[in-house]
Amino acid sequence: MSDRTHQSTLTATEDEELDAIDWTFPAADTQYLTHGLHTYPARMIPQIPDALLNHFLNHGEIEEEDTVYDPFSGSGTTAVEARLHGLNAKANDINPFACMLTKAKAVPIGRSTLDAAYRDLRSELKVELRKLSEKYENDDEIEIDLPAVRDGWFPEPQLHHLAHIRDEVSALEGDYSEDVVRFFRVVLSKVTRQTSYQRNGEFKRYRMAPEDREDHDPDVYALFTNKAEENISLMGSYSDRVDSDLDTDVYYADSRKAEDIDDNSVDMVITSPPYGDHGTTVAYGQFSQDPAIVADRREYDEMRNVDKEGLGGSASSLNDLDDLEDRSPSLGETIEVLDEKDGRAQDALDFFTDYYAVMEQVARVTKPGQPVAWVVANRTMSRVNIPTHLITYELCLDIGYEHEVTLPREIPQKTLPWENAPENTPGVKGDLMANENIVVVRAPE
Questions:
Q1: Residues of the chain with confidence (pLDDT) below 70
Q2: DSSP labels for 165-232?
Q3: With contact defined as beta carbons under 8 Å apart, do 371 and 365 qualify?
């Protein structure tokens, strides 16, 4: 890791280079290599960290074996791109499922190792699942520890099939590394969502209509083997390209405290914070609930609390900053409008109070003068536009960051709620989010 200090801010030419990039990346493949292992809500496309890392590497702002940090890791987009660029990575997430995905995507595993583990896993699997189906049809006793999913969300005997595969994956632990076991758990988590009655195209928990459930009879074995073979191919290609000696440290931790990250220990930050409190925008915990319970043996209550514990969530323990609105004029004006409309002013304050705490921690852990990129989307609350990019800019300046450039982009690829109806009035909808901004700043000196 470099011990150099930042010498100068971006030149006008470097700013122009960043401005010249089409940050929309139309028609780009966002699922290449391990980015394609598993879906995740509102995922930052890999082309963003790829372009940022290339730029700052080319200009000597960072160098190989430096460390990139993402305080909102999600599915690990930044961590994967860090490894692809010869960099170490550190990441936090408050969602244990996101931590599992980040490690599974970023840590390379050789193709021959995965092939051997897959042969062991698959050897008797089809026969065993058929026997389970026969026992279920005959009302025979089935001795298996079913996952603690909610009633009415899975067909049977498919839930028994998922539980059996979970146990077979766990049995690999005696002969293979934790990384290998984690890899197949991610395969199973994808199959879990496909097997459940979860409605297609939704990240929040919505069940299929009753008539559709009657016809839902997935072949768990086929789903699992198809996804396993697809993911083995993706991981094999990724593993061939990256340095296995680099480190990817992922912490199941709260970025408002970032207790596992040392002062001045990272060389660059690239992150895409949540757009708002999880319950009303992107429900990461709802998306993760069944896959984490089935594939990773997480408890129901733990997963139920993910959205409550996120930024601005009901379980947040931070007290409001009395002068937060003074630190950001754009936030102050937004709160005034929300107050006038009897809108969700307190929700907005709760979210930005938590966000500010993360900004402070990022300032602490990042080496002075090094680049920090916040990929943020504007949204609406109570039909009031929340200019997140301006609030981010102003709060960063208050902490002592130096602003470099703000780069706008459209987000046609993201699966997001483009419109919402906060009043829950039939036929009434409002714009939610259709563009992002990449706010690039420098850590305080």
A1: 1-12, 277-281, 315-317, 319-320, 412-434
A2: HHHHHHHGGGTS-HHHHHHHHHHHHHHHHHHSSBPTT-SS--BPPHHHHHT----HHHHHHHHHHHHH
A3: no
What is the C-alpha to C-alpha distance for residues 103 and 183, in angstroms, rounded to an integer?
9
Strand 371-377 versus strand 435-442 pairing type: antiparallel
Q: Which tokens sit at 99?
A: 């931590």
Expressed in percent and rounded to 5, the helix, strand and coil fractions of the chain are 45, 15, 40
Sheet hosting strand 67-70, strand order edge to edge: 248-252, 88-93, 67-70, 268-271, 371-377, 435-442, 402-410
User: Nearest 5 degrees, angle CA 282-CA 288-CA 294?
Assistant: 165
pLDDT number for residue 425: 35
pLDDT at 117: 98
Tally Cβ neighbours within 10 Å of residue 359.
24
307: helix, strand or coil:
helix
Q: Tokens for 247?
A: 């480190």
Q: What is the number of other CB atoms lying within 10 angstroms of the CB of residue 107? A: 26
Which residue type, as a one-letter code, is found at position 159? L
CA–CA separation, 229 and 375 (whole Å) = 33
DSSP labels, 309-363: HSTT-TT--PPPPTTHHHH-HHHHHHHHHHHHTT--HHHHHHHHHHHHHHHHHHH
Place of tokens 């929309």: 24
Q: Can you give the pLDDT at residue 15?
A: 80
Beta bridge partners of 379: 386
What is the pLDDT at residue 414?
47
Distances (CA, A) of 362 to 92, 249, 356, 372, 374: 11, 16, 10, 8, 11
Burial degree of 166 (CB within 10 A; 0-12, 13-18, 19+): buried
Pairing outcome for strands 67-70 and 88-93: parallel
Going by the DSSP 8-state scheme, the letter that residue 266 receives in this structure is B
Structure tokens, 116: 């051997």
Record the tokens describing residue 73, joined without a space: 């890791």
Distance CA 127, CA 108 (A): 31
Q: What are phi and psi of 117, to 5 degrees?
A: -65, -40
Q: How many CB atoms lie within 10 A of CB 134?
A: 11
Running DSSP on this structure, what letter comes out for residue 91? Answer: E
- Identify the H or E element spanning 379: strand 379-381
